[in-house]
Amino acid sequence: xxxxxxxxxxxxxxxxxxxxxxxxxxxxxxxxxxxxxxxxxxxxxxxxxxxxxxxxxxxxxxxxxxxxxxxxxxxxxxxxxxxxxxxxxxxxxxxxxxxxxxxxxxxxx
Length: 109
Fold this sequence. Notes:
It is a single chain. The protein has 109 residues and is an all-alpha fold. The protein has a domain at 42-108. The chain has helices at residues 2-31, 40-67, 73-106. α2 packs antiparallel against α3. Belongs to the FliE family. Pfam families: FliE. This is Flagellar hook-basal body complex protein FliE. One of its GO terms (cellular component) is bacterial-type flagellum basal body. It comes from Oceanidesulfovibrio marinus.
């Protein structure tokens, strides 16, 4: 069935793109001197870089779709959803961190 092939191709493409992003990040980590990669700050930086990568990928796909270079709607929609979910998760984490900060500031010693 043709629809299944299109969906499967979009899924494979999204999976390859995700592997590229993960591969780039793991390569960048191996170049850094030292060994303290598991800090909270590094985890936040890596997560924000991944979200930024998804946003850039989304913008690129929208641009290529609008210009007519790429007409794969499934790939575009998957990319839009991935970027949206990543951004909403980032916003939720930010909200929880700010809530924790305010709670600590209200503590009396």
